[in-house]
Amino acid sequence: MFNIFAKKPTPEELVRKWSSSIRTQQRGLDRQASTLKQEEKKAERTIKQLAKRGDTASCKILAKELIQCRRQRTRIATNKAQLNSISMELNYQVSKLKVVGSLQKSTQVMKSVNRLMSVPQLQRTLGEMSREMMKAGVIDEMTEDMMDGLDEDEEEEEDEVERVLAQVTDGLLGEIGQVPVAVSHVEVSEAESEPDLEDMQNRLSALRS
Question: Contacts by 155-161 with C-beta closer than 8 Å and gap 24+?
């Protein structure tokens, strides 16, 4: 039951609570980025194996997944930086409490919270935090702030696939050159088992969702 006599939290207590939530979310993002990095390395090894067999089509499929995972890691880094920006601004406001007497409205915090609300794994925490921040007068009511998310056209995506293939296969595939006919007959070490392309695709897709 809601206690109407409960003591109202002080600005310092609110900021400590918000900062703790932010650190928890940042650790979660770090774990997600680390898992993505591990799967990227596995995908790179698989692409190299497939390149030795001359399976260009499968290499391109995995290269596209690899590109999406790298973009996801970049988004994670951006989200983490936004969370850090919120935390720094809140701590700065706490340091000024003796002068101003209360938490002040912050456009910077509002913009960062608004952008982060579009991140599925952060929505629950940021939703609760934003409601508390509105009550505390730190931000105004949230508004729609759709960030530009224009997809690259097919030609640009294909160019990036070629660059990634060239980088991962040391020029065997991609923009530096296509696989020679003879490569399809290169002997593959018995230690290199047949890569499971579908399984790799499913793992990479799951990590991006």
Answer: 157/64, 157/67, 160/67, 161/60, 161/63, 161/64, 161/67
